[in-house]
Design goal:
The structure holds two protein chains of two kinds. Chain A is α+β, with helices and mostly antiparallel strands. Chain A is built from six helices and five strands, in the order ββαβββααααα. Chain A is globular and about 45 Å long. Helix content of chain A is 33%, strand content 14%. A five-stranded mixed β-sheet of chain A has the order 2-1-5-3-4, with helices on both faces. Chain B is of the alpha+beta class. Chain B has three domains: 7-55, 2-Layer Sandwich (Uridine Diphospho-n-acetylenolpyruvylglucosamine Reductase, domain 2); 62-173, Uridine Diphospho-n-acetylenolpyruvylglucosamine Reductase, domain 3 (2-Layer Sandwich), CATH 3.30.465.10; 179-282, CO dehydrogenase flavoprotein, C-terminal domain (Enolase-like, domain 1, 2-Layer Sandwich), CATH 3.30.390. In chain B, strand 4 (63-66) and strand 5 (69-73) form a beta hairpin. Chain B is globular and about 60 Å long. Classes of the chains: A alpha+beta, B alpha+beta. Chains A and B meet through strand 4 and helix 3 of A and helix 2 and helix 6 of B. The structure holds flavin-adenine dinucleotide and FE2/S2 (inorganic) cluster (2 copies). The site of flavin-adenine dinucleotide has 30 residues of chain B, from strand 2, helix 2, helix 7 and strand 10.
Chain lengths: 179, 285
């Protein structure tokens, strides 16, 4: 066992872990942050994405001991007062169906927007290339990220592409039905 | 799956790291960014007795100017490489290829040195290092040595870094103004690994190609130089026709593998097409 001290979503934890413990298992099983999920065994799907010292990483491909002394933010910690703008946009733009990929998608998207506050559709797709979604076909995820970007830039509705999802019903007819 | 149990060492200097490796028992693995090693350990394809984590060896991270070369620390992450001004100025090919590696999350952790020592045939940086004639600085119990790129990649997943040794830094000669560079990569959309890729570095002089260096990714167990193409280009007129004719020879002598992504003959075809595109762009045509 190796002692580690980590801040997770703003709270400090000191724990003993086996060196082989993956960060995602530490977060879920020892800290109780079950919002972060595991979707694959090959580091491909991105469902487990968290921020380590402010940068998105796949927590299934980091050892808990490597996070010693670091700050971890999970999906449970992104919304300070209510929902984070990216969470809100996924909700409003219907950027999810089963929701399994969503915690990772949101963590990767927040990371992308830190570097690029106004990404194009292509830049969003490339920015979240490490995250796989088996349900949505990505259309509304891209919309959600761009909508959140506009909101976070403070541009409100002025940018055309941040209108409600009904605008693009041809690509996502079910949205119109539900809107 | 989770990795098999191992003991863990976290040195803060190169000397401590070498000592931890020496004392680690039979099967010691060095952990850099872990983006290749941890997946392999999770699949239990590797089950080292000791893991020596270089993550806190600060001296191995960063890029510095060293006269006619830039020196890239082995632990410099892919995302550090992407934002480094020295690399952008003197070896933009490295940044271009690194931008195609994996995804944001993996690039935050994965390191330049780790990608080179791992030497995956589909990895993007080995062929780039080969095309740039980089030099590898290796330390071990016996001291420090420098290995040219042409001797570094020994075989499938095997480099000149011996057991008990560490790659500490990579020297990349500065290629100034008259050199153009391009990395052309062909991959499946949902998987960043190259099916085939080509790194081209070209120097033009008076309307001619004075010198060309072409590195091939995933055309054999190690990265390769397309020597026939380089010879055909040396002194050739800088025209689309001359480049196309030379690029036809890109697959000569190669024995690429056949796998789920591509058959060998398709890889050979890709090598000629991507070489034409990469050299054309690098020559500014
Ligand atoms: C989903 C995914 C997609 C990827 N896609 C690509 C891609 O498209 N292109 C690409 O090029 N790569 C890709 N990679 C691999 C990525 O580039 C890794 O970062 C890289 O291969 C290994 O670097 P690392 O720092 O993570 O090394 P580690 O995984 O820590 O180590 C890899 C190996 O090198 C050894 N090693 C590392 N550093 C040293 C050192 N300084 N001295 C001696 N030995 C050392 C280790 O012992 C180990 O055997 C991908 C990885 C993942 C998970
Ligand atoms: S669970 Fe981490 S990448 Fe799939
Ligand atoms: S919403 Fe189901 S996997 Fe993305």
């Amino acid at each position: 066992m190796t002692p580690i001290t980590v801040r997770v979503d703003g709270a400090a934890y000191t724990d003993d872990v086996e060196p082989r413990t993956l960060l995602v298992h530490y977060l879920r099983e020892q800290v109780g942050k079950v919002g972060t999920v595991v979707g694959c065994d090959t580091s491909n799907c991105g469902a487990c994405t968290v921020h380590l010292d402010g940068e998105a990483v796949k927590s299934c491909t980091v050892l808990a001991v490597q996070a010693d002394g670091c700050e971890v933010t999970t999906i449970e910690g992104v919304g300070q007062d209510g929902l984070h703008p990216v969470q809100k946009a996924f909700h409003e733009m219907h950027g999810l169906q089963c929701g399994y990929c969503t915690p990772g998608m949101i963590m990767a998207s927040i990371d992308l927007l830190q570097d690029n506050p106004d990404p194009s559709d292509d830049e969003v797709r490339e920015g979240i290339e490490g995250n796989l979604c088996r349900c949505t076909g990505y259309q509304n995820i891209v919309r959600a990220v761009r909508s959140a970007a506009a909101e976070m830039r403070g541009g409100g509705d002025g940018n055309g592409h941040v209108s409600p999802a009904v605008v693009d019903t041809a690509a996502a007819p079910h949205v119109a039905v539900q809107a | 799956m989770i990795p098999a149990p191992f003991s863990y060492a976290r040195p803060t200097t190169v000397e401590e790291a070498l000592q931890a490796i020496a004392e680690g028992g039979e099967d010691v693995k060095v952990l850099a960014g872990g983006q290749s090693l941890i997946p392999v350990m999770r699949l239990r394809l590797a089950a080292p007795e000791t893991v020596v984590d270089l993550g806190r060896v600060d001296g191995l991270r960063g890029v510095r100017d060293d006269g006619d070369a830039i020196v890239i620390g082995a632990m410099t992450t892919h995302s550090d490489v992407l934002s480094d001004p020295l690399i952008a100025e003197h070896a933009p090919l490295i940044a271009e290829a690194t931008g195609t590696v994996a995804d944001r999350q993996v690039r935050h952790r994965g390191t330049f040195g780790g990608a080179l020592v791992h030497a995956d045939p589909a990895g993007d940086l080995p062929a780039v290092a080969l095309a740039l004639d980089a030099e590898f600085v290796i330390v071990g119990p016996g001291g420090r040595r420098t290995v040219p790129a042409a001797e570094f990649f020994v075989d499938y997943l095997t480099t000149a870094v011996e057991e008990g040794e560490l790659l500490v830094e990579v020297r990349v000669p500065k290629l100034a103004g008259s050199w153009g560079m391009r990395y052309e990569k062909f991959n499946r959309v949902a998987q960043a690994w190259s099916i085939v890729a080509v790194a081209a570095v070209v120097r033009r002089e008076n309307g001619r190609i004075a010198e060309a260096r072409v590195g091939l990714t995933n055309m054999g167990p190690t990265p390769l130089r397309a020597r026939q193409v380089e010879e055909a280009l040396a002194g050739a007129e800088a025209t689309a026709e001359a480049v196309a004719a030379a690029a036809e020879r890109a697959a000569e002598g190669t024995e690429p593998s056949s796998d789920l992504n591509a058959q060998a003959d398709y890889r050979q075809h890709l090598a000629t097409v991507l070489t034409r595109r990469a050299v054309t762009a690098a020559a500014g045509l």
